[in-house]
Amino acid sequence: MKKILIINGHPDKESFNFGLSDAYKRGALKSGSEVKEIIIRDLAFNPNLAFGYRKRVELEPDLLHAQDKIKWADHLVLIYPVWWGSIPAMMKGFFDRVFLPGFAFQKRENSVWWDKLLKNKSARIISTLDQPAWYYWLVYRQPSHNAMKKLTLQFCGINPVRVTTIGPIRLSKDAYRQKWINKVEKLGEHNK
Fold first, then answer.
1. pLDDT in tens, 95-122
2. Which domains does the chain have, with CATH numbers?
3. Which of 5, 36, 101, 189 has CA atoms 20 to 30 A from the CA of 67?
């Protein structure tokens, strides 16, 4: 039985991203997996890493619970919209505050290298766009995917990281959205 953590970074509960999150959860539960969720919009925390890593700021209870869930999970599923080529501000603040040295990675003394502290976990990124996925890849080189996959998750040892990009959403029809709901539910069933 796989332990799956779904992290939803969309600030609007009525968004398509919440439908995708529910679909993945349904599929994962069908497979017999154990599922927990972090809905970032519902957490009480300051998203500002006020002093960088120079001075430690105590984590709010919601962020401590989030760290416990991340430690618990075998597989992380990140669901978010791409805005201005990046992730929503609250989600960025969540990662800034939660993926700290000593939890997610540890820099080595007198070295440019680091230790990856979140090994033996895999991840799936599911992101939505207001442009075609091929255009985001070809023209912009998918900056949010690179930042989340390579510079955040893999930096901390989470690997493999697979990416599902859905777009364009803004002018999409119900049939297009339902097709993606079904696909994401299948991803959940297969724990991918």
1. 999 999 999 999 999 999 999 999 999 9
2. 3-189 (3.40.50.360)
3. 189
**């619970």: which residue's tokens?**
65
Q: What is the pLDDT of residue 20?
A: 98
Q: Map tokens 């001075």 to a residue.
A: 55
Question: Who's near 136: CB < 8 A, 6+ residues apart?
Answer: 82, 129, 142, 165, 167
C-alpha distances (whole Å) from 19 to each of 1, 6, 71, 86, 133 are: 24, 13, 26, 21, 19
DSSP character for 55?
A: S
The reported pTM is: 0.95
Residue 59 is classified by DSSP as P
Query: What's the burial of 119, exposed, middle or buried (CB within 10 Å: 0-12/13-18/19+)?
Result: exposed
